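Trying the structure run again after the queue cleared.
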Amino acid sequence: MNALTITISRQYGSGGRAIAEQLSKDLNIPCYDNEVISKAAQESDIGAWEFSMAENMRFSEFIYALSDITPHCESQPLTYGERIFEAQSTALRKLADRGPAIFLGRCGNYVLRDRPNCVHLFICGSPEVRARRAVEVYGLKESEAAREVRRMDKLRAAYYGTNTGCRWGYGETYDLIINTDKIGVEGAVRLIKNYMILQG
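Done. Tokens:
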């Protein structure tokens, strides 16, 4: 099985991070998540704390920060949100230039959409199962888990849609969509590796 570059988008609590980490270990290729933010911060005039703040804003604040107040034209500078996305995307591409890797989030399937030898995955699950995983894995209180699942899904969908113009989780933008409710993390990893074998 030849190592390929893999992008993973995921719903909150679906096990996407664990899947990425296990694939990284099994395939012996790097997995990038927060590293992308750090590299972007180093090569731009935007601080790492600003990236973190942008990703943790409340839904309404996040949308506002990514939006233009006036109609966009070529002479206007990039908005705050556009500058962050541009820096992240540039860093992600440079990391991808190094060779096969796994990219978790950061609209990786969109940023690397024109590159050959990429597999784009979306990991999902039912809200109920994801809420249980959030309690077991992330230590959330049962009374808060369902709300946090909804909140994080909204943030990720908004970030993806605003920056790409595409719908988050929509089938046409991914090669494989996996529901982890029944097969779990280990089953998803096996499925992905089998899929990669089919890809040659």
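The CA atoms of residues 42 and 59 lie 27 Å apart. Worth checking whether this holds up in the mutant runs.
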